[in-house]
Amino acid sequence: MDFSLSPRAADLCERVASFIDTEIVPVEQEYEDSLAEARVAGQQWRPLPLLHALQAAAREQGLWNLFLPSGCEEALGSRYLPRGGAGLSNTDYAPIAEQTGRSFLAPMVFNCNAPDSGNMEVLIKYGSARQRGEWLDPLLDGRIRSAFAMTEPAVASSDATTLETTATVAGDQVTVNGRKWWSTGVGHPDCEILLVMALTDPQAPRHARHSMVLVPRSTAGVRVERMLPTMGIYDEPGGHGEISFTDVRVPLTNVIAGPGQAFAIAQGRLGPGRVHHCMRLIGLAERALELGCRRALSRSAFGKPLADLGGNRERIAEARMSIDQARLLVLHAAWLLDTRGPGAAVAEVSQIKAVVPKMAQQVIDMAIQLHGGAGLSDDFPLAAAWTHARALRLADGPDEVHSGVVASHELGKYRPKRGTADE
Amino acid sequence: MDFSLSPRAADLCERVASFIDTEIVPVEQEYEDSLAEARVAGQQWRPLPLLHALQAAAREQGLWNLFLPSGCEEALGSRYLPRGGAGLSNTDYAPIAEQTGRSFLAPMVFNCNAPDSGNMEVLIKYGSARQRGEWLDPLLDGRIRSAFAMTEPAVASSDATTLETTATVAGDQVTVNGRKWWSTGVGHPDCEILLVMALTDPQAPRHARHSMVLVPRSTAGVRVERMLPTMGIYDEPGGHGEISFTDVRVPLTNVIAGPGQAFAIAQGRLGPGRVHHCMRLIGLAERALELGCRRALSRSAFGKPLADLGGNRERIAEARMSIDQARLLVLHAAWLLDTRGPGAAVAEVSQIKAVVPKMAQQVIDMAIQLHGGAGLSDDFPLAAAWTHARALRLADGPDEVHSGVVASHELGKYRPKRGTADE
Amino acid sequence: MDFSLSPRAADLCERVASFIDTEIVPVEQEYEDSLAEARVAGQQWRPLPLLHALQAAAREQGLWNLFLPSGCEEALGSRYLPRGGAGLSNTDYAPIAEQTGRSFLAPMVFNCNAPDSGNMEVLIKYGSARQRGEWLDPLLDGRIRSAFAMTEPAVASSDATTLETTATVAGDQVTVNGRKWWSTGVGHPDCEILLVMALTDPQAPRHARHSMVLVPRSTAGVRVERMLPTMGIYDEPGGHGEISFTDVRVPLTNVIAGPGQAFAIAQGRLGPGRVHHCMRLIGLAERALELGCRRALSRSAFGKPLADLGGNRERIAEARMSIDQARLLVLHAAWLLDTRGPGAAVAEVSQIKAVVPKMAQQVIDMAIQLHGGAGLSDDFPLAAAWTHARALRLADGPDEVHSGVVASHELGKYRPKRGTADE
Amino acid sequence: MDFSLSPRAADLCERVASFIDTEIVPVEQEYEDSLAEARVAGQQWRPLPLLHALQAAAREQGLWNLFLPSGCEEALGSRYLPRGGAGLSNTDYAPIAEQTGRSFLAPMVFNCNAPDSGNMEVLIKYGSARQRGEWLDPLLDGRIRSAFAMTEPAVASSDATTLETTATVAGDQVTVNGRKWWSTGVGHPDCEILLVMALTDPQAPRHARHSMVLVPRSTAGVRVERMLPTMGIYDEPGGHGEISFTDVRVPLTNVIAGPGQAFAIAQGRLGPGRVHHCMRLIGLAERALELGCRRALSRSAFGKPLADLGGNRERIAEARMSIDQARLLVLHAAWLLDTRGPGAAVAEVSQIKAVVPKMAQQVIDMAIQLHGGAGLSDDFPLAAAWTHARALRLADGPDEVHSGVVASHELGKYRPKRGTADE
């Protein structure tokens, strides 16, 4: 057993951390202020120039597309090499993802943000040469952005078999009709391509009914109905949109891996994606704990620093212990993904998704409490952090669904073995 | 022991509830939509006409200023009678306050919203005839609004002895200098008067140093620096503001009850105010639970209504049990305020403040989870409800401070009696 | 609304409290030591003389059988009056039950202990004149003891329809066969009568299949197989037994209220019984909190009293707040039982059963923690208190079942009304 | 990063697990029954022959003294090799310790039980040749047992600087006076040697005042006053004793590493000891979860297996997630002990001690609840397991103290660096 990072990962992790500390954190408030001004002017749905400068610097330093999984360079050939990627395993990338979670700006700066990273992985694993050429290359360059349109307002989308948006195949065309929401990133002016999960064949077996369709944002019939706030926070410029699809026609070649493959694709996308989400949340929780500790030491009431009042120390200890446990759980799941493959790590990946957002929410809540009213305002990144963690208790499957997967797996150990799966 | 409402309270409570159900809840979404439009137009800091119509109807039906405590009619004389008030005890008003908590619009509609209600109580109990004439009358009519400026950004304001804003007395003038924030209601265009708690005599005994000064909003040197979001929510049109006071001069007659009386005034304001806050939160938690139950019954996943999945029923039961316990605790505290007076109910009032916001936050969080992504958006009043409950874990003293009061009181029962108080 | 005790209840409550403080608490340790000696000698399953002396004193002071519900004196006629009872409502008796919960000895001293009190109530409400004469009179005198045999080792007895012990009627005889356990009190040498719930007619409607049979302990075929420990604690001399019934024959007249009535009887027994259990647990939690506070003030570590270390104050406050909330919930349920009857208070009675034992367990756990190792030993009544509270999370229906009742009731408010009950 | 076991550890771990499954678990109930019989006969404080047979088998299979840390073979020379030990690092031994925690009998069977293992480590690291010869050899053989006498009834022993028992040096003699309790193992007839921590020089610096004295159990003046129950459970035949020392004289050569070294010795003993305790608790929690799952699948109520009722699945998932997180935390702490040494792992070792017993208590509590009344009885190892986990929230430092260490360490990261330690 060895808990140390590989030299490669350690080096990259340190460089990423250092870039965040020296280049990103110091400009966060400036960025926030510019965004606030843009809001007043109704210009908040476009990226701030600051971001592009940071991206250029990151790319120049080789801190670009680090999420790209080991193996993909060979798969993609030499033309992708200059676009970054370090051939990292999930285990090696995880600590880097944690670092990027410390600042809300960082994932975008390193081109490692959801949903683009997951969408790129899908195109690498399942995309045709044409699909890759058209959308993967500019995504790898950060020239365009993408969205993943799965969740629907009308159904409990955590049970993805209930999705109602249709992708009807007729000849060499696919027609999409329906409504999606919480499509992250769709507010960004560079968002050019949507991955839409939709029902193609209601008669097929449960997990072969849906297709994953590449729908250019500009196709006729695609309409962003509104951008959705999370507790009043819009996460501009990407945001989260509600989108209607009305007789949206794209060529059949836009269906990734062919009709009926959406579940297989989504499953392949989810394992590493959840590791990334969870590690970023751990970074966020670390940031909150740091802010909380600093506040606890620097503010006083009733003649003592907050750190010495009531149960504050116990809460700080509790935060440290829950973060450390959660991190180890995610790293272990990443290692299982690497060593045994996604199929053998389903329960462990559900574990991290059930554990980490709740943990992060609690740690951040504690840090907010230590900040008093300031913690609720936008003077600190805590309110946005809390909102983000809260949203991730629902996004990508609510806690309860993942908890159910873990329980089924656990009970399965003691059931008489039969051919059928639990529930 | 008798848990039934007095006939008077029961009648008013039912009429208030019925007004909310038939007049307010049905227009909530319309109100929200109008507010959203106003935001786009930069017009969100003014009241919507809808509200005035509702206020007029409520006043006509005698559902106006019901918060006014028993005894105040006599104190104020007949001219206040037509302005409502029913001479209710804290115990009798509490269930009405619960009802008004079910809709974010209701407290304003019935002229029972914080901080106006508390400020009116202060003027009734401590105000001079002139102060009452100038500000109490229009407040009772709902013609103007007020703010309470106590919390400061620079100090841990839960320890109010640390407040740094100064109110310097010179001759028959008072000069206020400093900075306050989280002054609720100050964004409202009708907000004409601020009650400012400020330091007058640093040499006086700890609780006689501060004065409560009536500062008209239009006085030179008063500047609302910005409005503060709570997790991105601004609570327009009243909102919460950060205010700077620069050499703000008002006559000495604007000091309520004379210099050095701010603590005495604040204490008298707090008992009933906390009962009101807590009962409204209980109403809010009831609303959230109702929404949660309805969603749990109407949405299905994995072939069952959410109500029949996982631990949802246990969480619903937990919510019911924690709401009912919290309500009884608040009612009991209100009864102690009525029967023994504020001095004998300090620990019990701190209990409710420590218990209820946390309880409400949890119940609302559960209801959000049952709603999936919709719960985080503004399609339901849950996101705003959550934010409000979260803020009240800090506003008016953070949980930890109230918890400390309860503990000191509890331990005090077993200490050798001495002359000195516990901490 | 009025939270004050009736003068009658207040007087009795104070006298009971005073009796416990002056007569019982001071001899607890002596009692424990004698019991420990008796254990070494194998004599622990007989009452200690100390108890009889206390009982005599309590009876002489009119503090005897106070649990007897209002109405029962008239029902029973004058011969029961000298045996005590004060005609108290559930609401009035509840605070007295709380007092008796403070000491493990008290319920027995006042002849108000489970299961005797519940069994007496059953005989009063449902017993025939012969049944009352034979068993109620000596129970009221404390001359004999009784047990309630419902739970079975072989089935999940919280679903009482699954009970398998049979009570077969043939002619004017009933034959009982089966196995019960956790029959409290059966270890006591004075335990002469068992109320056995058993299956008579498997073809009858679900809730009319079982009968409640009075089985004298000395009947042939009744065998106490063993006494059961709870975490190693046996609660001698009454204890909790596992009993086998092998062809146990009693006359048909021993069936209370006739065959098939067991569910009706059990339901009638449960409402007040749960109020009693819960109020005693509240008394127990109060005792634990008192011990915890005293320890927190008298022990020091790291240079400070425990009360001033870490989160101890917050935990003490938490205990106070959860006790007070739980007490109010139980009092309210008692009041509903009195004013609306058991049928209208089912959900509220389930609430208290789900809330109070868990609350008591937590408060006692906290007090144990403050005592260090001493809290786990038998030097303080805390270990036994903890064990008792833990057991009550299962006895008389596990938390989860009561929680389910509360949830069904809550969801039922929002279901389309139909003729059928939830689940 | 690599979460796999070394081949050596994997092999031993599997063999230990297999021995427990095939040799120990099947005889647990027989052992319990024999012990129960022995209790009736007053013979419970002697080991049952069953145990000796198991020990012989374990030793024969090379599963003996596996706790012995890497490095100690060289230190001790070849004569210790046949007495077992496999030169395992903390990281490698940890999973074996987990296995031994699954059965209360196993640690004794493998001669890896507390406090003997810790005492042997002390003698290896700090003992003189004479001390080793006299006590270490027979301990390694399992011919004698030992106790560790540190905790005192009169002081909050978690602050070990307050210990009051004295070890007065005069000439070449040491005289011990005082009272200790919770000395585990002292009830065993083979317990021949006590390690007593006592005050030698009150004027010395805080952590140099106490000595660790080897006191043979048979020395005049040593008296086991009583054996202490934990919630009624005595853990015979070793148990936990209260011991008085009255003018107990031993030669100065019995002081380990010389007077004043007790703190240094205790610290060196604690790191690995806490890892062992925690890993055993994780094994215990695993056992409880397994029992809980089996019960949840095999028992039905209301027409469904318990596994499908209410929140049971979520609780099972919660247990799995908290066990897995806790295990990883302990393994990581073990790895830090191995790679950085105890001095650099203080906070991490405190973390595991604060996290694991609480986690185990909760998991076991959940499993008990699934078992109904049976879970509280001695029909399952759950009641004893719960009691053991509960006791470990106090033994070896209460949760709160460890939590405080973690918080100090965390806050220390953000303090201005000074020469002095936090508090």
TrEMBL record, chains A, B, C, D:
Gene3D superfamilies xref list: Acyl-CoA dehydrogenase/oxidase, N-terminal domain, Butyryl-CoA Dehydrogenase, subunit A, domain 2, Butyryl-CoA Dehydrogenase, subunit A, domain 3
Pfam families assigned: Acyl-CoA_dh_1 (PF00441), Acyl-CoA_dh_M (PF02770), Acyl-CoA_dh_N (PF02771)
TM helices/strands, residue ranges: none
Keywords: FAD, Flavoprotein, Oxidoreductase
Any one cellular-component term (Gene Ontology): cytoplasm
Residue ranges of domain Acyl-CoA dehydrogenase/oxidase C-terminal in the record: 263-408
Cofactor: FAD
Protein name stated in the entry: Acyl-CoA dehydrogenase family protein
Organism: Arthrobacter terrae
